[in-house]
Amino acid sequence: MEETSRKRQRSGCILAALATLVTLILMGCLFTSLVANVGAAGWAVWTQRQLLREEERTRALEAELERLLEILDEHDIQPPLAPGDVQLMDTIEGQVAAMRGLRPAYPVTRTLISQDTLREQTEQDFETDFTPDDARDYALALAAFDMVDPDLDMYGVLLRLYTEQIAGYYDIETEQVYVVADVGPMGQTERLTYAHEFVHVLQDQTFDLEGMGFSDDAEDVYDSEYLYAVRCLVEGDASLLENQFLATHFDADDVLALAEESLEIDMSVLDAVPDVLAESLFFPYRDGLAFVETLYESGGWAAVDAAYATPPLSTEHILHPERYVAYDEPQLVAIPPLTDTLGAGWRQVDEDVLGEYFTRYYLDQQIPADEAEAAAAGWGGDRYAVHYHAARDALALVFRSVWDTPGDAEEFVDAYVGYAEGRFGHAPDVTDHARMCWTGDSDALCMRWGSLDVTIALGPDVDTATRLLEAAAFE
């Protein structure tokens, strides 16, 4: 019994020792785990602090860089491109030249500019080439066609539009490419922008864009319809190459980055401008692209190159490439002087060609889009003149148009009746054999037509509109 008791005691001591050992092991494991967790937490805190320090340093460096750039700006000194940006631009130039099939004749200056610098440059250009009085006249001309409010601050709107919605541009006069970029290396947006702008370099060095009408005095030589059509060719060409460049040289990660960058673009300015200004901005890229794509499909880049020798002459050519191929030239339309008809106090603010596209846009304000498109499609030529009487705050408009066939003229007359009735809210007050007039609270509108021509006159009253109509209508 005593031996058995001693065995039990030894056995109990052994079990107690084992239990103690297991407990010590578990405590050791727990202690190790706690130490490890404390170490991981400490590392995380240290890392977070390091990241915060790096972010602070980065912000400080960016602020210092911005300060230095402002100093360079004040002294009209362009900062040099970073080596990585130089290499990227060189690569893009080679890729674009190979794809477009045109070789650069000589290098051009390339500059990355900030949004603030772009605004300063735009303001300087406006001060030289586009005064507040010019902007006011532009607003009045569009208001005569009911496209904007006559009191619109056109100068401020266009200044913001050309500052905040421009990603880059090629200055033909200085032969310099500007790309708008934030501080740091070029992103995918800047990469694609430079590809587009370098096409303009190749166009200019190969086809002489200045000689085609891209100059400060172009409006003294050409009407806006021709200049707009040529711009459609140039921008459509660059846009087609840009699309091909995107498809060829951007991988999935590049496209994703480009999409993410596009989400940061501020579209509030574009959303706030009158629709006609947005359309004026979009048309050369959207419809110009469609026009150039038609040429490209018919004969590749050689067919596009040939268009620079015989450029499109009107938006009719852009909207109907088959008429460009047939080279259906617009008819010249004249408007006699109207100062004697209007009397004292009136000043002409604009005289130009409206063209098929903006004739369509004009009608589209009051009638269905498909009817406006069909009615404008028979356009053969036009001329308009807008006058303004400051003391009376009154507008006068004469718009003369010619049409390809009698059926086209009749279709436009029918469409314009719909436009006028929508504008004034009632049927014509006067209806003769080939004349109609509508009278409203503050103005009156009259229309007279022949077999191939239509004349429209707007004035502050029906008497003025009638006198304008008789003075300007075709015999």
Which H/E pattern describes the elements? HHEHHHEEHHHHHHHHHEHHEEHEEEEH
Anisotropy-based shape: globular
Estimate nothing, just give the exact number of structural domains.
3
Q: How many beta-strand runs? A: 10
**Average pLDDT value?**
87
Q: What strand order characterises the main sheet?
A: 4-5-6-10-9-8-7
Percent of residues in beta strands: 5-15%
* End-to-end Cα distance: 145 Å
Low-confidence stretches: 1-41
Topology:
Elements: H1 2-74, H2 83-100, E1 109-113, H3 115-129, H4 132-144, H5 154-164, E2 168-171, E3 176-180, H6 188-207, H7 209-212, H8 224-249, H9 252-262, H10 268-272, H11 275-309, H12 315-319, H13 321-325, H14 339-342, E4 346-352, H15 355-364, H16 369-376, E5 379-389, E6 394-403, H17 406-424, E7 430-431, E8 435-439, E9 444-449, E10 453-459, H18 462-472
Parallel strand pairs: 1-3
Antiparallel strand pairs: 2-3, 4-5, 5-6, 6-10, 7-8, 8-9, 9-10
Provide an overview of this structure.
The chain has helices at 2-74, 83-100, 115-129, 132-144, 154-164, 188-207, 209-212, 224-249, 252-262, 268-272, 275-309, 315-319, 321-325, 339-342, 355-364, 369-376, 406-424, 462-472, and strands spanning 109-113, 168-171, 176-180, 346-352, 379-389, 394-403, 430-431, 435-439, 444-449, 453-459. It is α+β, with helices and mostly antiparallel strands and 475 residues long. Helix 6 packs across helix 8 (224-249).
